[in-house]
């Protein structure tokens, strides 16, 4: 059985510093303006592998590159809502599962999906994270699959 922390548990009880930091980071990601991220959780040499969008399959390195990736990802949408559903894992390997809803900037088409990130920490900073279209794949990559 994998350790799961739901949003209500995150807000209610004790947790590891990495879980708390990740929760706070994901909240800023979902509530701030377009790409205005608090990058303080990320190591300056962080690596981000984006595998959710087909035309973004590359690795972004460093704060500036991660900020650029987020801007690129969001520019196609007029309106975006990102909600964190849960954080799974303990220690330095966590998976966050999210629900995305957005309205296309030019098409006006609304779309939604679930996706996940597999996060690797060192010294309470994210050193690597990977996006996955399927949360089960992220859990498997983190060694947290059932």
Question: How would you describe what is shown here?
Answer:
The protein has helices at 7-12, 17-31, 63-74, 135-141, and strands at residues 4-6, 42-50, 58-61, 77-90, 93-104, 110-122, 125-132. It has four helices and seven strands, in the order βααββαββββα. The chain has one domain: Nuclear Transport Factor 2, Chain: A (Roll). Residues 1-14 have low confidence and may be disordered. Strands 1-4-5-6-7-2-3 form a seven-stranded mixed beta sheet, with helices on both faces. It starts with a strand and ends in a 5-residue tail after the last helix. The chain is an alpha+beta fold and 146 residues long. The longest helix is centred in the first third of the chain and has 15 residues, at 17-31.
